[in-house]
Amino acid sequence: MPLGITHGLGSWKVQQNNVERHTDNAAYTAANPEDTLILAGPPRYMDVKQEETSGVSSLLAVGMTQTFQFTSQVPLQPMQAMGSARLFFTRGKSQTSWRLGRLLTNGRNLLRVLYHNAVAAGLKVQQLDEPPVPTSIGTQNTTFYANLDSELFYVPFGLAILFRDRAKELLGAFYFELCMVNMYTLGFTIGQNMVMEDISGLCDRVVPFQPSSLAVLDTVNRVTLDEVIGFVGGDDSIPSEGFSVGMGDLSLD
Known about the structure:
By secondary structure, this protein is mostly beta strands. It contains 5 helices and 12 strands. It has a single domain, classed as Roll (Pnp Oxidase, Chain A), CATH 2.30.110.
């Protein structure tokens, strides 16, 4: 190997080693926003898993996305028993919030994209007491949704996030279950060159998953790429502990 790896204090060499893993191949093994895909779908991942088995998918790619971030936090309560100076903690359920920003463009707006499953299921949004679209004749295919008071936005949905590297290997994937929108923002200022939509919301849980459909994609031979820059294979060239999981592993256990 061109450089060694520092696994602990005993192998710490500043000039001769990388820390934890080799970094010579970081340019094609690191995650990049260009290799990240966001999809909207059913509220529970189990529905997506069943669809994959039947060869059908209701996931819709969310295009024109500029920003995405999520935060998971857990309520912790520090406790202390009399007679001890040490703290211990009680823990609640994790709470996840997310935010998605997208360029406003001709076609489906962001709310319409996220709720495409409800529309695909045949929900007649024009007939709701508070419709998210105009109710006049000829607007059945309206692609711009608004009005968070609409009953449509009481319906949860799911979000899938997938990360790949430049060698097209899957780094990891999340499925955000039971997403609900709690804020929709659209702002514009004179002189700017675009109009952005921004949505924030909450979800029930974040489920790691592995879409088996990615197994059919053509991939660059990772071993060949490593050999080009002097890696000879072995456990140290590809970390044994990482973010990826086995192809075809769809288990939620």
